[in-house]
Write a structure and sequence with these properties.
heterodimer; A: alpha+beta; Alpha-Beta Plaits; two-stranded antiparallel ribbon; about 30% helix; elongated; B: two-stranded antiparallel sheet; 2 strands
Chain lengths: ~260, ~140
C-alpha cells in the first residue's frame, strides 16, 4: 500500500493520543473512590482557650528595671526555639525591650517624667485589629485568625519581607541564615524556622490550644494581663476599665491589641 | 515521483540507527535485573508493640500519609483545630513531632529509608525537630 507522509503522520498522531488518554482516564476513574474512603473529623482540643479577640495589658508601673522583663523574654526565647545571632542585623525578636521614645514616638515631650523616659518597655507583635502585614502578604502566609491572633504559616512564607516593611511596630524578623545552629537548647515540641522565612510573636497559639496562658503572662507576676477584649467581664477588660491605657502609634489606625498602663 | 525511492547511504544510515538505539537504551538493559529492592520501613518504639494501631490503616498510611500530613498542617495552622478523630472514634493530637515520632521513634529507619529510596526530600525536617537529633 502506498502511504504518503501526510497519512503516516495522521495515524501516528491518533495512536499517540489513544495511548496517552488511557492513563488519564484511569486516574480520573479511580480518584473518586479513594477520597470517599476516609472521612475523619477534626476539632479543637477540649481544654482549648477561645476568645473573640485576644488582648494584652502591660502594667509598666510594676516594673523597675530591665531585669524585671528578662524572665518573660527568656521563657519565650526558650519555648519557641528563637536563635541568638551575634550579628545584630540578623536578630530574631518575638518579645523585646525598647525605650519610651522608640515605642511611643509621638507621645513623648521634652518635660517627660525621667523615670518613664529611662524605663525599658516590653514590646511584641500587637496582633492588630487591621493588620497591615496581612494585607500586603502576597501568599496569605500571614493571616488573622478568628480569635484575633495574627499568625504566620511558615510553610507558605516565601520570604519577600513585604510584611516587615508594612508593620509599623518592627515586630517581624527575617531569618537571613539557618537558625538551627544558633538555638542554645532546642525544644522539640515546637518547630524551629528555616532560612528565608519571616517570624514573630504568635501570642502562644500552641499554648492556648491546650488551655495554657501565653508563657510571658505566666511568668510575669501580674505585670501582664491576658484575656478576651470582646468579653466585658474578662480580666483584661476590668484592668482596662480601671486604668488609663495607651497603645503604640494610635494615629495609624492599626488597632493594636496590646495596651500599656504608664 | 513514484520512481524516486532510492535511499542514499543505506548501509551507513542503518548501522548508525542501530548504534543509536543501542546507546540510547543502554541504561535500561545494562541495569536489567539489578534494581535495588524497595526497603521496608522498620517499626520501632511504641509502633513496634503488639496491638498498636496507627492513625489510619497501614495501607491507607502507606499511600496517603503525605496528604494526611498536609491536611493536618492546614487545619492546625489555619483553623486552630488540633485534634483528629479517626473512623474508630480515637483521638490524636495532630503533630508530626509529638504524635508521629512519639511512636515511630526512629526517623532514619521509618521515614528516611523510603524517602531516600524514592529520591524524595520532604522539607518537614528543616523546621520540625526529630527529638533524637535535638540538642
Amino acid at each position: 500500500m502506498e502511504s504518503s507522509r501526510r497519512s503516516f503522520l495522521k495515524i501516528a498522531g491518533i495512536s499517540a493520543l489513544g495511548l496517552g488518554a488511557k492513563p488519564v482516564l484511569d486516574v480520573l476513574a479511580s480518584s473518586g473512590e479513594n477520597g470517599e474512603k476516609v472521612k475523619p473529623e477534626t476539632m479543637k482540643g477540649k481544654d482549648a482557650l477561645t476568645a473573640k479577640r485576644w488582648g494584652l495589658v502591660i502594667d509598666t508601673r510594676k516594673l523597675q528595671s530591665e531585669e524585671d522583663l528578662k524572665p518573660m523574654i527568656e521563657v519565650c526565647d526558650k519555648i519557641h526555639n528563637i536563635p541568638d545571632f551575634e550579628n545584630k542585623n540578623h536578630e530574631i525578636k518575638w518579645i523585646w525591650t525598647e525605650e519610651f521614645h522608640h515605642i511611643f514616638p509621638t507621645q513623648g515631650h521634652e518635660f517627660l517624667d525621667e523615670e518613664v523616659e529611662n524605663l525599658s518597655f516590653l514590646t511584641l507583635c500587637n496582633h492588630c485589629e487591621k493588620p497591615a502585614c496581612v494585607r500586603v502578604c502576597p501568599t496569605k502566609a500571614t493571616f488573622k485568625r478568628e480569635d484575633g491572633i495574627v499568625l504566620m504559616d511558615f510553610h507558605r512564607c516565601i520570604g519577600c519581607r513585604f510584611c516587615m516593611a508594612a508593620c509599623p511596630y518592627g515586630s517581624r524578623s527575617f531569618n537571613f541564615r539557618d537558625p538551627r545552629p544558633f538555638i542554645k537548647e532546642q525544644n522539640p515540641e515546637f518547630p524551629t524556622r528555616s532560612k528565608g522565612v519571616v517570624e514573630k510573636c504568635n501570642f502562644c497559639a500552641e499554648r492556648l490550644a491546650v488551655g495554657k496562658l501565653p508563657a510571658c503572662v505566666e511568668v510575669s507576676n501580674g505585670v501582664l494581663t491576658f484575656g478576651d477584649l470582646d468579653d466585658p467581664e474578662s480580666e483584661v477588660r476590668k484592668v482596662l476599665r480601671n486604668n488609663y491605657t495607651i497603645r503604640r502609634k494610635p494615629a495609624l489606625g492599626a488597632g493594636p491589641s496590646v495596651f500599656y498602663i504608664i | 515521483m513514484t520512481n524516486n525511492k532510492k535511499m542514499y547511504d543505506k548501509g551507513m544510515v542503518i548501522v548508525g540507527l542501530c548504534i543509536f538505539v543501542v546507546v540510547i537504551t543502554f541504561p535500561f538493559w545494562f541495569n536489567l535485573g539489578n534494581a535495588a529492592p524497595a526497603p521496608e520501613p522498620k517499626l520501632t518504639g511504641k509502633a513496634a508493640e503488639d496491638g498498636q494501631q496507627c492513625v489510619e490503616s497501614k495501607e491507607y498510611m502507606k499511600t496517603e500519609h503525605m496528604q494526611i500530613l498536609n491536611e493536618w498542617r492546614d487545619t492546625v495552622v489555619r483553623d486552630a483545630k488540633r485534634t483528629y478523630v479517626n473512623n474508630n472514634g480515637k483521638k490524636f493530637n495532630m503533630s508530626l513531632t509529638n504524635t508521629c515520632l512519639d511512636c515511630h521513634t526512629e526517623k532514619a529507619e521509618f521515614c528516611d529509608k523510603c524517602h531516600n529510596y524514592a529520591s524524595v526530600s520532604p522539607y518537614c525536617w528543616e523546621c520540625h525537630i526529630d527529638p533524637k537529633e535535638a540538642k
